């Protein structure tokens, strides 16, 4: 029967085909990255959770109190979770292109599709990790409820948005400079160590603090911590942080349509 005579219900829309491509890429991504088993996926989800509680154990062993005046666990979690969300999201996008590059020989698969699939997987994984952290805090008798839940959600969302944007930019850079995959690991380590995960930046001298505020991750962490402690005494430049998130995403998508499609 000619395709023109097929009923509309039997025709697949472009959106439906694209959704199937993204779904297939997500399934392949999860199977290849996590060893093809549920245990591999569990290990990857629990890895950042173990990282957070290792830092808490170090603080407790050294007898370091929380600078926020609350639980040391909550202090580390409010700094590490948004920082790790940004770090993993922005870094894993580059790995997705490297691992799945052979798939781009198929006309249905583009670099943008691989990027979208990896972002969705990272978002789901990050959300599950956050739920596990919350569950552990409740089990330990620590109340994880922020004073301003909407502000906390906004801070976590901005960490994800900035991670998406910088991930797209990283793919653009890596398309013509493959060594950036390893160079960015060094960058993320420096960002993690200087973003205020284990200390309060506003307690440093004003000259140093003013320089640190140019780092949007510093302000995102303060955004989240302010939701837990409104009397923290910090001011977040919300337009600046949102501008970083949306701006990096726009630049990354522009690079995908120009540079990435040229070199990959």
**Largest sheet composition:** none
Assembly level: single chain
Q: What general form does the structure show?
A: globular
Structural class: mainly alpha
Radius of gyration: 21 Å
**End-to-end separation:** 39 Å
Unreliable segments of 5+ consecutive residues = 6-11
Give the helices and strands as they follow along the chain: HHHHHHHHH
Q: Give the rounded overall mean pLDDT.
A: 83
Beta-strand share of residues: under 5%
Secondary structure: helix percent: over 70%
Number of helices: 9
Number of domains: 1
Number of strands: 0
Task: Describe this protein's structure.
The chain has 264 residues and is mainly α. It is built from 9 helices and no strands. It is globular, with a radius of gyration of 21 Å. The protein has one domain (16-263). The longest helix is centred in the N-terminal third of the chain and has 29 residues, at 72-100.
């Amino acid at each position: 029967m000619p395709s023109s005579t097929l009923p509309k219900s039997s025709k697949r829309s472009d959106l439906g085909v694209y959704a199937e491509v993204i779904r297939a890429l997500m399934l392949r991504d999860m199977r290849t990255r996590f060893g093809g088993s549920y245990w591999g996926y569990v290990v990857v989800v629990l890895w950042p959770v173990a990282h957070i509680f290792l830092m808490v154990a170090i603080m407790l062993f050294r007898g370091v109190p929380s600078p926020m005046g609350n639980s040391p666990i909550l202090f580390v979690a409010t700094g590490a979770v948004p920082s790790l969300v940004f770090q993993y999201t922005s870094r894993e996008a580059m790995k997705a292109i490297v691992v799945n590059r052979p798939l781009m020989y198929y006309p249905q698969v583009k670099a943008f599709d691989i990027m979208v699939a990896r972002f969705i997987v990272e978002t789901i994984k990050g959300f599950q990790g956050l739920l596990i952290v919350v569950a552990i805090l409740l089990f330990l008798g620590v109340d994880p409820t922020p004073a301003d839940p909407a502000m906390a959600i906004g801070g976590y969302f901005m960490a994800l948005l900035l991670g998406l944007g910088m991930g797209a930019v990283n793919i653009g850079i890596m398309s013509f400079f493959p060594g950036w995959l390893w160079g960015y690991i060094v960058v993320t380590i420096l960002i993690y160590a200087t973003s205020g995960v284990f200390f309060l930046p506003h307690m440093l001298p004003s000259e140093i603090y003013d320089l640190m505020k140019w780092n949007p991750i510093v302000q995102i962490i303060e955004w989240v911590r302010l939701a837990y402690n409104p009397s923290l005494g910090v001011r977040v430049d919300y337009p600046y942080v949102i501008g970083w998130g949306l701006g990096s995403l726009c630049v990354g998508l522009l690079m995908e349509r120009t540079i990435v499609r040229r070199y990959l």
